[in-house]
Amino acid sequence: YQAFVASIDLLSLHCPVCGVVGLFILYGHYKRFVITDDTSNDCKINIRVQRIQCTQCRSTHSLLPTNFVPYTQFTYLFIYYIVTLDENDDLITSFDVALQTVRKIKARVIAFWDSLFPDWRDFKQNDLKIESLKRHNILFGSTRSYCKLFVLPTEL
Question: How far is CA 35 from CA 7, 39, 107, 138, 154, in A?
Answer without folding.
Answer: 23, 10, 19, 20, 24
